[in-house]
């Protein structure tokens, strides 16, 4: 394994690779600084119950604001953090900030926050106690925390992962599989692992516009057969929403309802929707 984070191990093959590597070193250093000095932020994106149209919680999404340039997307800095050993620090910050933000914007509610967890965090021996410490510190009930992980956890040390997930779930924390259908699941893992929710990847929603209904309903049936609830990710249009409502699932998330929002904007959004006590039926009249 050739680290792309350190000088000296690169630019052996060609100059382009060298330039890219130098940029990555620079970027990794900047990321470390941001994590260590309050330079990171978090956006929350609402999750909506399909049967009532009500807000049920949020997904927390890491943000790395830049002073002069456009923000760097998590699709870039999360893999960078993983490669450069920054994931434990970034992951811990995200987890704590997510719980704090939920307590800030929705104290004494049953709204939950879903936090993306890298497989590297799950393999850390201190992970379970770190999560429990954060819950204690922020006084958030475990039922209000959900941990999202992608199917690549099944390509890792499955015994250890199963063990960690069992400990978390015994505490009441919910576990979900993110981007479901794009990765490495086998049905036997879905049966064996202590899970609560499958998040159907946005690509299956996009496919609904071109005959993808069969596979979409099959995924819902599979999830329900395994007694897992379903969150449909990435609903952008009324047309997509109509299909999704017809095909089922417990919750939806997507730009159609709200994009991920950082604190000031999120507070505004909540004020607007608090009038209907988080009931968004009026605004999205798709429920009876
Ligand atoms: P994800 O966990 O699947 O998060 C959903 C992504 O879809 C988010 O992108 C969100 O902004 C985007 N999204 C939500 N609704 C829609 C929609 O209607 N249409 C479209 N086109 N996109 C929508 P984002 O924030 O850029 O994050 C990308 C990925 O980066 C996440 O995918 C997740 O895998 C990773 N990520 C973000 N924050 C964290 C974090 O704190 N920890 C870890 N380990 N990964 C994170
Ligand atoms: Mg996610
Ligand atoms: Mg996802
Ligand atoms: Mg994704």
From TrEMBL:
EAL domain boundaries: 24-274
Transmembrane found in the keyword field: yes
Protein's UniProt keywords contain Transmembrane helix: yes
Top-rank lineage group of the source organism: Bacteria
Keywords of this entry: Membrane, Transmembrane, Transmembrane helix
Name of the protein described by the UniProt record: Uncharacterized protein
Residues shown, of full length: 595 to 882 of 884
């Amino acid at each position: 394994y050739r680290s792309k984070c350190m000088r000296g191990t690169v630019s052996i093959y060609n100059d382009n690779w060298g330039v890219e590597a130098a940029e990555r070193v620079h970027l990794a250093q900047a990321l470390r600084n941001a994590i260590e000095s309050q330079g990171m932020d978090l956006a929350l994106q609402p999750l909506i119950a399909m049967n009532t149209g009500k807000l049920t919680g949020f997904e927390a999404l890491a943000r790395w604001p830049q002073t002069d340039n456009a923000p760097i997307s998590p699709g870039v800095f999360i893999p960078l953090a993983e490669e450069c050993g920054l994931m434990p620090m970034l992951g811990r910050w995200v987890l704590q900030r997510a719980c704090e933000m939920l307590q800030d914007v929705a104290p004494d509610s049953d709204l939950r926050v879903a936090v993306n967890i890298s497989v590297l965090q799950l393999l850390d021996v201190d992970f379970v106690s770190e999560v429990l410490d954060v819950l204690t510190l922020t006084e958030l009930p475990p039922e209000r925390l959900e941990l999202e992980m992608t199917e690549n956890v099944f390509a890792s040390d499955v015994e250890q992962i199963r063990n960690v997930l069992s400990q978390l779930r015994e505490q009441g924390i919910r576990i979900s599989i993110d981007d479901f259908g794009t990765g490495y699941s086998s049905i036997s893992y879905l049966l064996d692992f202590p899970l609560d929710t499958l998040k159907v990847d946005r690509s299956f929603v996009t496919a609904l516009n071109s005959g993808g209904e069969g596979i979409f309903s099959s995924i819902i049936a599979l999830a329900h057969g395994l007694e897992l609830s379903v969150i449909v990710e990435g609903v952008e249009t009324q047309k997509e929403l109509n299909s999704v409502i017809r095909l089922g699932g417990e919750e939806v998330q997507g730009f159609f309802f709200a994009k991920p929002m950082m604190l000031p904007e999120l507070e505004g959004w909540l004020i607007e929707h608090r009038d209907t006590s988080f009931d968004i039926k009026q605004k999205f009249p798709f429920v009876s």
